[in-house]
Sequence to fold (348 residues):
Amino acid sequence: MSPSSPLPRAVTARAHANIALVKYWGKRDAARNLPAAGSLSLTLDALTTVTHVAFDPALPADTMSLDGRPAGAGELGRTSAWLDLVRARAGIATRARVDSTNHFPTASGLASSASGYAALALAATRAAGLTLTARELSILARQGSGSAARSIFGGLVRLHAGTPTDRGADARSSDDDEAYAVALPSPLTSTLRMVIAIVGGGVPKTIGSRDAMDHCAETSPFYAAWIAAVERDLPAAEAAIAAGDVAALGALVEANALAMHAAAIASRPAIIYWQPATLACLATVRALRGAGRAAWGTMDAGPHVKVLTTAADADAVAAAMRATAGVTEVMISAAGGPAVVVEDAAAC
Ligand code: 2P0
Fold:
C-alpha cells in the first residue's frame, strides 16, 4: 500500500457480480464479517456495478445514491461505517459522496452487494489516496459484504475463510488477514457459462441473506452438517477445476446449493426461498442433463435458478429455461473480469 496523490480525488470503478458454486452461508464473527467456511464462485460479465466516489472536505456527512436515487438510511449507515475503515487506513476524516449504479438487466432481484462493495472498495481506496493489492482489497470488500471479496477478481475465485481448516497457503496470524479471495486461473473459465433464469410472479420480498444465514446458524439442526459439506465440497470443486472436469464441478455445484437450501429450510421458523417455478426450473435442468446437455442448477437467497453450463450448450439451456413455466427472463453470462478503475481524476 502507498499513498498515490492528495485529496480530493474522484474515482469511478466497475465490478461484476458473482454466483457462488460452493456457497457462503454462515459467519463465525459478525462484527468483522468473517465467514464460517470458504466459498468458490464465478464472476459474471453480464451483471455490473459502476461506483463513483469523491472525498470532499466541504461535505458534513457521507452521501450516497443508488441507481440515481438517494440511498435509504440503513444502506447509507452501513456504507458510512464501512467507509470509516477506509478513512482509518488512509488517515483522513473527510466525508465522501458515493454514487452507485447497477447495470443488471431489468429489475431482476439479483443481489448486487457483491459487485457493489467490490466496486466501492476499489473506488473508495483510490479516492482516499490508497493503492491496495487485490488481496488487501478483497479483505476490505469482505468487511462490507462477504461475497464482495470474490468480485475483486475475475473468473473462478476462491474465498479463504481463514479458519484452521480453510487457511490460505500463506496464512498469517490475524483472522482478518487470512479471510481473503484468490483467483483460480483455469482453462475452464472461458468454457463456462451461467444461464440465469429469473422467476417472477410478484413474489413478496423474502428475508435477506445476512439475517437468514444468522437465523439458519442459530436454529437449523442441519447447519453443522452444511458447514461440514462445504469443507468437503471446496477441495473437490478445486480438484474438478484443476482437472477441467465440468461434469464433476457441475454435480458438486448443484448438490452444494441444495445442501445450503436444505439447511435454510430446516431453520425454525423455516427460510424457504423457492417458488413453484424454482422447482420447475430444476426439473428442466434434470431433463437437459438427461438429454446429454451440460446443465447444473444453483440458487441463492431468492427463487431464481442459475444454470452452470458450457458455451456449446448455453443456447439450448437458455431456450429450455425460457420455455419453463414461471420464468420471466433468461440471460446468458460468460465469466467476467476483475474490478477495475474506469476513471481517476482530481475532483473539481
Ligand atoms: C454466496 N450468498 O456465496 C451466498 C449464497 C447468498 C447465498 O453471499 O452478510 O450479501 O453481506 O456478508 O455476501 C449473500 O451474502 O452476505 C451470499 P454478507 P452476502 O454468494
Summary: Residues 9-188 form a domain with the Ribosomal Protein S5; domain 2 fold (CATH 3.30.230.10).
